[in-house]
Amino acid sequence: MKRKRAENEIHDEVEEVEEEEAAPTIITTAKGMNSIVWQTPATNPPHRDDYIFLNGRRHVKPYYFRFICHVKNRWAGKTIVDLFTDEFKGRNYDYYERAVKCGRIQVDGKNVSIHYRVKTSETISHFVHRHEPPVMACDVSVLHEEEDVLTVCKPASVPVHACGQYQKNTVVGILEAEHGLAPLFPIHRLDRLVSGLLILARSSSKANTFRQQIEAGLVKKLYIAKVKGEFPEGEQVVDVNIYHDAREQISNVEVGDDATNVKPKGKASSTKFKRIDTNGEHSIVYCEPITGRTHQIRVHLQYAGHPIANDMLYLGESVGRRSAEEASADRVAARSKDSISSKTSENNEQPEEESFVDFTNDPMCTHCPNLAPTGYGGLEEGLWLHCIRYSGPDWSYECPYPDWAKLD
């Protein structure tokens, strides 16, 4: 089974590829190293012992992993080293040359020369020592458990399922490792930095039932947010198109101009808001998204003049490239270093405790000896945006309010 990368989750700095669930492969690596068992999600499910807790963060012990992708038409004719250097910029030319020579990069399961030119019918594998970014060290608390449905309170900073750089440091991974709950089928998404109610089906048939109701518009969602300023009283509705820039991982409102006769790129979007408390400096607001666009609540609150109070991506009056680059929460992967040698100064900034953690260092790994991947910017703060309720035709699930929802 191949898993597609989820939209608007951060990308893996090594490769943007599909992950293959197949039998592990054993290969001989660089001189002086033993044979390594390369793992996939099917052969290496999350386990409680995989996690290390340091300085308020949940880390995953690094592990060997195989990424796989198929040669695209525009790649055909490139040498294998040039292909990786041009397309997957998380590592430099020297690393990729060494990886091909020692068999960490293969074509159709076979070692090739550094001068080998790829063809469109081929499959490329990259064997890596995988370091996942840490997340906040919060429990994934089970709220309600039924025969075919599980509801949990998702902590901020933890992605829902495997995507980008994350495989085990996910809600689904943690529930399997710490509660023995598997398989699980999330029926909706919450952005990585958003907390709150998450509904997971315990069978694919139940998941399909939920998704059919969502697609038919029969499901209502309710969030709570802490925003800047004194939000107006009464129900406020923001009806404005949203355009999502996938490259910059940011959304923008798009106000139509009939005079220009230019076709809008954005999608119709609508959110209802209602203030429930304010102290003048901040307000607590109910948020009911009628549509489901990327970052919809966040960008609609920014458009209304009351952005989420700790949302660095949308706190400015205008949303642009600079704000996206400054927000470590949304742009961690973009700051990964290109060279192996450049990681030395980055490593020195990591907490001292990390150097005492027992895990196997890989001499070819561009992240070792640290737990966190090179370029990780530090402990992230979760957004003050929390899902509190999902309800359908004959069901309703709720999540407790977060601590920040109480104003002084």
TrEMBL record:
Its EC number is 5.4.99.-. It comes from the Eukaryota. GO terms for biological process: enzyme-directed rRNA pseudouridine synthesis. It holds the Pfam family PseudoU_synth_2. It is an enzyme of class 5 (isomerase). GO terms for molecular function: pseudouridine synthase activity; RNA binding. Residues 148-302 form the Pseudouridine synthase RsuA/RluA-like domain. The keyword RNA-binding applies. The active site is at 191. PANTHER family: MITOCHONDRIAL RNA PSEUDOURIDINE SYNTHASE (PTHR21600), PSEUDOURIDYLATE SYNTHASE RPUSD2 (PTHR21600:SF40). Belongs to the pseudouridine synthase RluA family. This is Pseudouridine synthase. It comes from Spinacia oleracea.
